[in-house]
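Running low. Got one?
___
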Amino acid sequence: MAPKLPKVSSSMYEKYYGFSERPFQLSPDPKFFFASSHHQRALSYLQYGLDQGEGFIVVTGPIGTGKTTIARNLLNNLGDASIVAAQLVTTKLNPQELLELVIAEFNITIKGESKADLLQGIETFLIQLHHQGKRALLLVDEAQNLPSETVEELRMLSNFQLDNKPLIQSFLLGQEELKGIIQAPNMEQFRQRIIASAHLKPLSKNEVKEYINHRLHQAGCNKENLFADPAFELIYEKTLGIPRKINIFVDRLLLFGFLEELHSINVDAINEVAKEMSVELTGSLGGQSIDDNKPIQASVVNSTEHVENIKNVLREVEEILEGSIQQKVKMTRYIDKLLKQKNRDLAELQSKDIESM
């Protein structure tokens, strides 16, 4: 049986760099919300929609630009007990499935399972909220997955009114495909209910630097110049300014820095990690997608070309083998370093136990 390798814990680099927590986690955390110009505008539109108490707000943007983080930030800072909010992360739901999900998220009691029963249960719940001086807010994340008829069902829910006031309001957040759904000719009635819309864009070069420093500060970073100035521009080039890719990339950079005992992250470290992560960051590291449907063209080569091709293949195999050996050597060093770290931690614990006796 192969020996079990020590687990590389992110808490190790937290301690090494003096963080109180991981600054670049993938899970959306309102604490780390960074208000770029586009993100602040989108958040302002959502807040405006809340103040209006009616109409739809639509926020779109490419994958990983922070739509879910904005939604979490809004919910975390509602500060209004009169708003009962629920967040849906959707898949391709038909109208009935959407209603069932709304009922589940708001914990609504229903008498039957027909669409009429679902709508009646939702309306009764909304009227009860109204009598309590409250109203419902529905945040629909990944809304680009909804068919147009399901988006139309959301519009129908907005028809629930009492005393000329809507009983429920919906915000839609989704990838760029959502714009195509809403702009379809049969969605004119829905478009007329939209009071504001915003489109998120990747961060600029300057914003990437501000974003990284903001998250480091929020995590209690006490090291000055942890990243050399040229590093920020290179990180922007590797990630194209997309927050989620920045989080993945910089988290790995910090782990690499800990393992290599770097006190600052420089250009060499960034290029090394980028090389290791080329598969994970294909879209931002110049990787080319492979078109499976592209026809393969047959070609005829002469003997000289054939020999040259064999040489090229052998050179590639040699490079792969050399890279594999280097990776194994590096992994051995990493494991040795981790074992030493574990031994130091164990010695500290034993010393504390002896002192407390």
